[in-house]
Amino acid sequence: MSRTVAVVGATGAVGRELRRLLEIRSFPLDEIRLIASERSAGTALAFKGSEITVHALTEPDVFDGVDIALFSAGGTTSKQYAPKAVDAGATVVDNSSAWRMDADVPLIVAEVNPDALAGVRKGIVANPNCTTMVAMLPLKALHDAFGLEQVIATSYQAAGGAGQKGIDELISQARDLIEHSDLLISDGARAMEATSHEVHASVLAFNAVPRIGTPDERGYTDEEMKLQNESRKILGLLDLEVVPTCVRVPVVVGHAVQVRARFAEKVTADSAREAMSGFPGLLLDELPTPLAWAGRNETVVGRVREDLIDPHALNFWVVGDNLLKGAALNTVQIAELLVERGTA
Ligand code: A2P
């Protein structure tokens, strides 16, 4: 059987990784259809040594003959076009937030809940938020051993979580501000005037920005609530208590999350390390940093510490490449599972 795979958002930061992973993992496909906005239509991108012309998503027959469509072009685009791809006969794996909480759409972390794929009723499978994704692997391993009840999590999220434009903005701010290293010490507010921001909520270079997304009436942002709602759905723990804080840090690629997790059972650092070791896609390291793990497929946990107050609680630091496990890698893993199971 011949198989056609479409990549929607092929020119973006995640799209670039999707193309690379489909190539290096020898994903079983006979044709690749690269799709982006009208701005990119007609340009060419390399795939397996050939130059492939980019199509505009608005072309009427753009999904004709497509078996699997990997979407990473933002929520609005997915909301509008994923159903069109399904109508044309494709199974969609969507990397946006558009479909994640739909009861008829499975939300899958390949190593955590692959069996939920059986619930693919709308023809759409959702890929979780990149920060949630990173936390899911250790939390699943620990839940299986100790019974997870509560998570208090603070993220340290890379600029690349906001796409290529998020990376470009950070780099250009860093270039602007490096000229003003004296002001970075003596008058930070004036230093900030030497650059500008649009993508991130404030100047990100040489800074930390404690707001990602739009706050609700209680002050929690949509990005933060994804951590609560998606964790509950993926782990099948509908009452899981989650208190999230999301912070943007001047890292190009690689999200980190500091987690305090509380369990039904008592937990020690040794028993926690034992529970996590050997979990697929998860490694333990002394001092994992986002930079050191950028470009790597594995999620990595470090600084595993017993809590100072509660013998049922554990503190740890987890790092994962937001463009790979946090986005493109898990998307391709889901597509591989669909092929293995004969669903697409
Ligand atoms: P384009 O490059 O043509 O704008 P990133 O997350 O790195 O910013 O990438 C976003 C991806 O989504 C790009 O490939 C971009 O294509 C694509 N995209 C954004 N908006 C649309 C749209 N309205 N229709 C189709 N593709 C879109």
Would you write up a description of this structure?
By secondary structure, the protein is of the alpha/beta class. It is 33% helix and 23% strand. The longest helix is centred in the middle third of the chain and has 17 residues, at 130-146. It is globular, with a radius of gyration of 20 Å. The chain binds adenosine-2'-5'-diphosphate. Adenosine-2'-5'-diphosphate binds at residues 9-15, 36-37, 39-40, 57, 73-74, 77, 163-165. The site of adenosine-2'-5'-diphosphate has 18 residues, from helix 1 and helix 4.
List the helices and strands and how they pair.
Elements: E1 4-8, H1 13-24, E2 31-36, E3 44-47, E4 50-56, E5 68-71, H2 75-87, E6 91-94, E7 124-126, H3 130-146, E8 148-157, H4 163-178, H5 181-186, H6 188-192, H7 222-235, E9 241-248, E10 255-263, H8 269-276, E11 282-284, H9 290-293, E12 299-306, E13 313-320, H10 324-340
Parallel strand pairs: 1-2, 1-5, 2-4, 5-6, 6-7, 8-9, 11-12
Antiparallel strand pairs: 3-4, 8-10, 10-13, 12-13
Helix pairs in contact: 1-10, 3-7
The structure holds adenosine-2'-5'-diphosphate.
* CATH T-level fold name of the largest domain: Dihydrodipicolinate Reductase, domain 2
Q: How many structural domains in the coordinates? A: 2
- What does the radius of gyration come to? 20 Å
**CATH homologous group name of the largest domain:** Dihydrodipicolinate Reductase, domain 2
Order of SSEs: EHEEEEHEEHEHHHHEEHEHEEH
| Overall average residue pLDDT | 97
What is the count of DSSP helices, taking H or I runs of 4+ residues? 10
Sheet/helix structural class: alpha/beta
